[in-house]
Specification:
- By secondary structure, the protein is an alpha+beta fold.
- The chain has a single domain, classed as Alpha-Beta Plaits (2-Layer Sandwich), CATH 3.30.70.120.
- Helix content is 20%, strand content 34%.
- The strands form two sheets. The chain has a four-stranded antiparallel beta sheet, covered by helices on one side. Strands 3-4 form a two-stranded antiparallel ribbon.
- Strand 3 and strand 4 form a beta hairpin.
Length: 112
Amino acid sequence: MKKIETIIRKSKFGEVKDALHQIEVNFFSYWDVTGVGNEKQGHVYRGVSYSTSDIQRRFLSIVVSDPFLEKTVAAIIETAHTGNVGDGKIFVSDVIESYRIRTGEKGADALK
């Protein structure tokens, strides 16, 4: 099993969520987060200057069985990509075990 943690633009969350549901990844957690990125300059929008040093993003935590890893990452990249600075990051780590509290199932069965 793998844990996928991704930080994406809030404006892309709906598209990413729909793409994950299409590949049958139906459970994940998410949070609104603020981060500091590589872009150091501010932007001017309608004559108002604003800082981009504190960036509003959405953080998703997804645990999938190994066969779902590549298609999950591909779905996130395809839908979250704009080609601009600040599209986000994806981190993948191993999950040693998972348990469903209600039934006591463990492993990949607990993810269904």
